[in-house]
């Protein structure tokens, strides 16, 4: 296996991008990643494109070939990756495996989703497909509903409060004010969150990630080639992936995501690191309770202790551990297929020292955690500086 590095990153602004179609969003992200990597289209050996439900949201399938066509790549292999909200993280892992194995050298990995051209109800139905269609969606449950049940159980077992969940949202919206790519750049207070409309008790509008349009892209290369292309290649130290039951009802626990725990433990083992070594992390905050569970699943906190710590400011920008400097799914937005790739873009900027107003002072090791469905898929990556 070869060492693999990120040599280029690209991102579009997230939000309601009514002026841009799927093709424009993809081109914007892919072209800036290639420019950042100092490569031309003739250098690209393969591409992976993560998208969860482009057909449901825009009518467009066959997205990987579409990107290859749109960008004028000459007949390269192009593969779409779908793993619900973890499509982007999974696409990154496929790219990593392809380069590490020696099959291809320069691989572009992207993610895209355009969710705002349909009504919220249609979007909700499309997103519901990430759960068990027969046992969950058909019975009327939505994604906020599934995570609301996890939140209720966490509150019951550990005394987690709605105010502590609101503190997650306040932190992420605060970081989003410093990110020019973010959908929402407005500070929020605990009372803003607490007084926002109820979506699925106890989760309110401002506990939920929004519906978003956006795309993100990364260029991967073997480390020895990466060093020639770029002064600051970011090495992928671990890339892990685990799954669990699709149905929430059949999980071992409702207060955590076992797949994330397994993928997280494997990632630390492969990288020969521990949670204490991480300086900056982008975890999957699709709902505020999801970030609390992620921090426990990944071993940053013991079970039942993350909510209090986050509310006390331990994971704010430049505190003990900077978590979700981009503003996350909550504040930066959640175009589902793009999210896992965008997390890696943010960590790359942090480790290169290019995150501007939201730069973490000491950023040597970063982590991303991307979840699909209510926890049926989890993908974890750990990244490190090479200089
Ligand atoms: N966070 C912050 N603001 C939000 C928001 C969110 N999650 N969702 C909507 N808004 C804002 C909108 O921009 C809009 O503001 P405006 O009036 O200034 O334009 C306002 O709140 C009302 O938006 P609206 O579109 O009417 O909301 P909605 O009720 O149709 O949808 C949710 C709200 C929470 C149901 C929807 O965002 C949602 O389904 N989120 C979860 C997405 C999801 O499940 N993703 C997968 C996770 S696993």
Describe the structure.
The chain has 387 residues and is of the alpha/beta class. The chain is built from 14 helices and twelve strands. It has helices at 22-36, 54-58, 63-70, 87-100, 120-128, 143-158, 162-176, 190-195, 223-229, 258-271, 288-297, 306-311, 328-331, 336-352; strands at residues 4-11, 46-50, 78-81, 107-114, 198-200, 203-204, 213-222, 234-243, 280-282, 322-323, 365-372, 377-385. It has a ten-stranded mixed beta sheet with strand order 3-2-4-7-1-8-12-11-9-10, with helices on both faces. Strands 5-6 form a two-stranded antiparallel ribbon. Strand 11 and strand 12 form a beta hairpin. The protein is globular. The chain binds coenzyme A. Coenzyme A (COA) is lined by residues 85, 120, 124, 127, 143-144, 184, 199, 205-206, 208-211, 286, 334.
Short description:
The protein is α/β, with parallel strands linked by helices and 387 residues long.
Quick tags:
387 residues, alpha/beta, Peroxisomal Thiolase, Chain A, domain 1, 14 helices, binds coenzyme A
Principal-axes geometry comes out as globular
Total discrete domains = 2
> Order of SSEs, N→C?
EHEHHEHEHHHHEEEHEHEHHEHHEE
Low-confidence stretches: none
Secondary-structure-derived class: alpha/beta
Task: Explain the layout of strands and helices.
Blueprint: E1 4-11, H1 22-36, E2 46-50, H2 54-58, H3 63-70, E3 78-81, H4 87-100, E4 107-114, H5 120-128, H6 143-158, H7 162-176, H8 190-195, E5 198-200, E6 203-204, E7 213-222, H9 223-229, E8 234-243, H10 258-271, E9 280-282, H11 288-297, H12 306-311, E10 322-323, H13 328-331, H14 336-352, E11 365-372, E12 377-385
Parallel strand pairs: 2-3, 2-4, 9-10, 9-11
Antiparallel strand pairs: 1-7, 1-8, 4-7, 5-6, 8-12, 11-12
The structure holds coenzyme A.
Coenzyme A is lined by residues 85, 120, 124, 127, 143-144, 184, 199, 205-206, 208-211, 286, 334.
